[in-house]
Amino acid sequence: MPSTPRFVSLLRVAVAFVAFAVWPWTYAQNRLPGSAEIDAYLTSVVRDTRIPGIVALVVDADRVVYTGAFGRQNVAAGVPMANDSIFRIASMTKPVTSVAVMMLVQEGDIGLDAPVSDYLPAFANERVIENFNPADKSYTARPASTPMTVRHLLAHTSGLGYAFSSHTLAALVGAEPGASATRFPLLHDPGARWTYGESTRVLGTLVEEVSGQPLEEFLSERIFVPLGMSDTFYTVPAPKVGRVATVHRTTPD
């Protein structure tokens, strides 16, 4: 890390948090050969780069053989990183939500190749953007050639995108602050190609609709609690907030 880096907190909504919760934190000293070298390397990474902090974990089968915490959990407050610091997992919520969907598929409540509109009528009669005029943000759209299915959502081939990765959606969403990309026609026909986008957001809504439970409740009840993931949440309980690693960004200097 540079000699006098300055970091400021970046306020953002966290979808879920995890702190290697599957394994208990009461182990013996590190048993991995080369632990000292790993410590030295990760210490140098924090010292010589703009990464504020790191937590490392090595698992051999069902044993934790190495853990190490380096740098700071909160730079401004000088809080050191700890083995049990809790991190925002951002888009790693996607596989967790997808597991929830597949549980409902396995139980016969959702069909992989069923149209999404069977469960969420708002997705009936989807249209696809054909021509977009960036000057006035107007566009023409045609009917999608095939219905969007649950499989399309899981495979990110639904035609839904993100504003940050599509100039078209960026312009459309920018013209309607607060609007979701699902508010607009698809970027392409379902199944035509892969596009990273809001498919998993729709899957979360699907889980809620089919299960009759809020997504957070379903994930906790069906996944987190059975797996012993006691530090994974949508909203971190007040007693554990002090363990949450701050999101940082670097300033120009």
**pLDDT averaged over residues:** 87
Report the sheet-strand fraction: 15-25%
SS class:
alpha+beta
Please write the CATH class name of the largest domain.
Alpha Beta
CATH topology of the largest domain, what is it called? Answer: Beta-lactamase
Query: Can you tell me the CATH architecture of the largest domain?
Result: 3-Layer(aba) Sandwich
- Overall shape: it is globular
Strand runs, count: 9
Tally of individual domains: 2
User: Order of strands across the biggest sheet?
Assistant: 3-4-5
Unreliable residue runs: 1-28
Quaternary state of this entry equals single chain
The helix/strand series, from N terminus to C terminus, equals EEHEEEEHEEHHHHE
CATH homology group of the largest domain = DD-peptidase/beta-lactamase superfamily
Helical amount: 25-40%
- Count of runs of 4 or more consecutive helical residues: 6
End-to-end gap? 13 Å
Largest sheet: 3 strands, antiparallel
How much is the radius of gyration in Å? 22 Å
